[in-house]
């Protein structure tokens, strides 16, 4: 089933790329969501409409969770569920950048079994299915690992370097880079271009469900900030951040983090 599901997601992602690419980011109509939830554009909504029409029709017994669809508790009664971000990196899209992605996943009993992260403007399609490895444009990819934090290249937003996040206030001296799309950051780790990534704030499931499987199938490890495996289709679809990378680096990063989240900014 994961292989068949993956073909379904790949086809849907390619169609999503065609739809989104018809819009010029800076000219696309844009609105701000309530409660500071960030922007949404007409491209997000057009992609979401296509996906919501297409995917559940192909798998009518699967549940549905998408950033751009009002959530329903119906999904909680389904063993399999689509977890979708029509456009991850909407701010980037609206600014006219190419660094945004479609993030599509299928999860079974809380675990991602098929996943696609597609960047149409960069012609990069990352994909994975359980037990089948991870690919970029059809070629197998694998993580690059290091046990030395000072040699590691890690994707992380600057607030993650606040000393309160780290054990004893000691921030590791790793190389830091950043990409606007969380799904893309995870895919880049799977590709081996960066050794790891982390985000220490609560994270929406649709941003990370696809990247989780792609990293694991590329030989890496992906957990929340406290070292617990990621589980999806929760009543509140938010998880306690993400720490990901090769096995050795993941161990080092996790050990360096402050295990007590109380009083940590943004947590």
UniProtKB/TrEMBL annotation:
CDD domains: CysQ (cd01638). The keyword Cytoplasm does not apply. GO terms for biological process: inositol metabolic process; phosphatidylinositol phosphate biosynthetic process; signal transduction. It comes from the Bacteria. GO terms for molecular function: inositol monophosphate 1-phosphatase activity; metal ion binding. Its EC number is 3.1.3.25. Mg(2+) binds at residues 67, 85, 87-88, 207. Keywords: Hydrolase, Magnesium, Metal-binding. Its cofactor is Mg(2+). Pfam families: Inositol_P. The keyword Nucleotide-binding does not apply. It is an enzyme of class 3 (hydrolase). InterPro entries: Inositol_monophosphatase-like, Inositol_monophosphatase_CS. Belongs to the inositol monophosphatase superfamily. PANTHER family: INOSITOL MONOPHOSPHATASE (PTHR20854), INOSITOL-1-MONOPHOSPHATASE-RELATED (PTHR20854:SF4). This is Inositol-1-monophosphatase.
């Amino acid at each position: 089933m994961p292989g068949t599901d993956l073909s379904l997601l790949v086809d849907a992602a390619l169609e999503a790329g065609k739809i989104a690419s018809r819009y010029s980011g800076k000219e696309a109509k844009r609105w701000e969501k309530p409660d500071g939830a960030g922007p949404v554009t007409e491209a997000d909504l057009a992609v979401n409409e296509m996906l919501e029409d297409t995917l559940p029709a192909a798998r009518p017994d699967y549940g549905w969770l998408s950033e751009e669809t009002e959530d329903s508790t119906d999904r909680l009664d389904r063993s399999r569920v689509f977890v979708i971000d029509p456009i991850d990196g909407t701010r980037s899209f609206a600014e006219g950048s190419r660094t945004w992605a479609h993030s599509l996943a299928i999860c079974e009993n809380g675990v991602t079994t098929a996943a696609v992260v597609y960047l149409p403007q960069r012609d990069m399609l990352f994909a994975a299915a359980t037990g089948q490895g991870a690919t970029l444009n059809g070629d197998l990819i694998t993580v690059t690992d290091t046990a030395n934090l000072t040699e590691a290249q890690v994707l992380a937003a600057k607030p993650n370097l606040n000393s309160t996040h780290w054990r004893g206030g000691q921030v590791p001296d790793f190389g830091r880079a950043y990409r606007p799309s969380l799904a893309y950051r995870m895919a880049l780790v799977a590709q081996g271009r960066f050794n790891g990534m982390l985000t220490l704030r609560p994270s929406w499931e649709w941003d990370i469900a696809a990247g989780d499987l792609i990293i694991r199938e590329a030989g890496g490890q992906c957990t929340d900030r406290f070292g617990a495996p990621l589980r999806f289709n929760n009543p509140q679809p938010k998880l306690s951040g993400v720490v990901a990378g090769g096995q050795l680096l993941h161990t080092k990063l996790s050990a360096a983090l402050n295990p007590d989240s109380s009083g940590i900014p943004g947590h």
